[in-house]
Write a structure and sequence with these properties.
Blueprint lengths: L44 E10 L2 E11 L4 E5 L6 H8 L7 E6 L2 E2 L2 E4 L2 E4 L2 H8 L2 E4 L11 H11 L5 H14 L15 H13 L5 E5 L7 H17 L3 E5 L3 H7 L2 E6 L2 E6 L1 H6 L4 H13 L1
Helix pairs in contact: 3-4, 3-5, 4-5, 5-6
Length: 297
Amino acid sequence: MTVKTDVDALTPSHSAFAVENPMKRDDPASVLEPQAGVPGEAPMVRFVGVTKRYGALTVLDELDLDIGRNEKVAIIGPSGSGKSTLLRVLMTLDPLTGGMIEVDGEPLTHMRKNDELVPASPKHLRRVRSKIGMVFQSFNLFPHMTALANTIEAPMQVLGLSRKEATERARDLLSLVGLEDKCNHYPSQLSGGQQQRVAIARALAMRPKVMLFDEVTSALDPELCGEVLNVIRRLGSEHNLTMLMVTHQMGFAREFADRVCFFSQGKIIEQGPPQQFFSAPQHERTQQFLRAVKEAV
């Protein structure tokens, strides 16, 4: 089996699947087989040889990472280590330079065609990407829309829900994040923590299987930060979601995550269960980072 690398036919707007070298392995089909984990079950998310470069700068360096179904993974590390880029390439906001990504047992960045793996078509990409929701640091709400309108827009436009169906779903989700009384408020009438909770409800309205959180509390003061983290705790305990969270909140990572991954220079230097990771880090770079974090508190 071979992989076609001719992506000239793809328009710039579809550059998320235009890669210099989609696969670096001799047999691309082999990467689709389940690895160790739950017997017979493929990971919910798999990064295979994922590389991302900006010019001469390598931000992700041939990364291999499996995320199990319903697993909660905290991603930590110094600035510029590739943490947020990992989420952005998974959300196809940035194109890969090399490697491939799978979601829910099928390729995201590629698809099968005539027994080959080729760069994904826009239709395939939209379908697989619909399984992923992302919440950003900066909220990204539409300022001219109420909390309710922000939450119903994508389900109506992308999923084809009726206004009634989308509104019912949105009201349930805004209630879930504690904002049932703020449905008709505009972003400018909401605190930062409330805006972030609307952003979480908006992402959940698409019924994703995977939720990505990129430094969602970094722009908030401690009290508002607690509001948002409590919502994420509730999502983790009450809903079957696979969750990847880039965070500087070490206490929350230790309490919430099933696994912690420490990134440095585009690679995972160390990973493990939170208790083990924080109590007895093995790698010198991890130890150095955790000391610096502790001293900064």
